[in-house]
Amino acid sequence: MPSQQNSPATLIVNARLVNEGREFDGDLRIEQGRIAQIGTGLAARGFETVIDARGRRLLPGMIDDQVHFREPGLEYKADMATESAAAVAGGLTTFMDMPNTNPPTLDAAALEDKYRRAHGRAWGNYGFYLGASNDNLEAIRQLDPRTAPGIKVFMGASTGNMLVDDPATLDSIFREAPTPIITHCEDTPMIDAELARYKAQYGDDIPAWCHPDIRSREACMKSTQLALSLARRHNTRLHVLHISTAEELALFEPGPLRDAHGLRKRITAETCVHFLRFDRADYDRLGHKIKCNPAIKDASDREALIAALAADVIDVLATDHAPHTLEEKARPYTTAPSGLPLVQYALLAALELVHEGRLTTAQVVQKFAHAPAELFDVRGRGFLREGYAADLVLIEDTPLTVHADDVLSKCAWSPFEGTTFHSRVASTWVNGVLAWDGDRLVGDAMGQRLEFDR
Ligand code: DOR
């Protein structure tokens, strides 16, 4: 595997750089895996590869703080190599992976096992969350905060068996967590009650469009309120994942992530691309392909979530990439698993909102690269800054239609099949090395273990 020390020196000229709220014309020099210089009229040196960006947008690589790459234990659905390849093809150069694997990631040994697996196989940079359970408080207390972006608490049951519903345990986790806590918020007893009602009516073959009524907005609201009250009681750094309803937005404080004194918000919110591109009307066409937890809800929720991103009520955009096989998705409602593959087309889907005039490119970069880097104290990534890792993505405004044959995820399907995006990923660099050339993966898996400045 080549190291970043012998990575090629590259000069990208005539780019439209998008960074920290600005869009400007300029050049960017890569040396030894890092951004060496940003400026205008930079002169090429003999040994450098020069790339003419021809005015195309050059962004920091996206940082996806919510993926399920399924390793260990569920490799028949996905693995770190296949899914990180799909991510890099989609301009996502860093991923943070969830603990609902088999076995689940519940202690330091399981965490290190994942880091070992990713080494040399992950196309993007990687971090792994420690999971919480009803009985791993000691492992949470002892977690070295430099070894994981955060601690994942399933406050609602989903894929895997990781529900934390013991009130005393929840209270202790929020009081003692040495890293940010990230939560999946849906109230399981409310969901179970609704599911029983629908099963009584339909048996196992509940229509897919009932999913948002079973995994209801009320269940989201109740659980999110509980997470926020625990965080306020203990002054916890809390990040609430995948907000899916308009109602929950009122619970979060609008405003930028940082003020002059550093990280201002103790409680932050995230939504996911599928909540911005799909709504209840899509269950007819896509069925269980868009069955996920929390559920995709109404068009009015979708519109409110987009507005909340623009208004800085929602701080982070991520994917919740959660692949399952088509065979699994074809099962009846009660046994069809929840989750959909997203990493390869998530950035292009987000850029459609720019095309539609709902967000700016700078806002997409803020939510999908800068904010996760800041929230999780990621060292030296997520920005176009001299000295930072050269994780970069070049966007070309040429239409791209999604075909199943082009999907790099192991499950080999996408909810976006047949969709034409206005833009495509022309190139992705990871640690200064070209990894995606617009058509195919090139070179080797160059991802590095994330470091956290804590
Ligand atoms: O839809 C989902 N799928 N939501 C989750 O919380 C878990 C995920 C999975 O792992 O399949």
Automatic annotation (TrEMBL):
This is Dihydroorotase. GO terms for cellular component: cytoplasm. Its EC number is 3.5.2.3. Catalyzes the reversible cyclization of carbamoyl aspartate to dihydroorotate. GO terms for molecular function: allantoinase activity; dihydroorotase activity; metal ion binding. It is an enzyme of class 3 (hydrolase). The lineage of its organism: Bacteria, Pseudomonadati, Pseudomonadota, Gammaproteobacteria, Lysobacterales. It comes from the Bacteria. Keywords: Hydrolase, Metal-binding. PROSITE patterns: DIHYDROOROTASE_2. Belongs to the metallo-dependent hydrolases superfamily. DHOase family. Class I DHOase subfamily. The keyword Repeat does not apply. Residues 58-433 form the Amidohydrolase-related domain. GO terms for biological process: purine nucleobase catabolic process. Its cofactor is Zn(2+). It comes from Agrilutibacter solisilvae. The keyword Hydrolase applies.
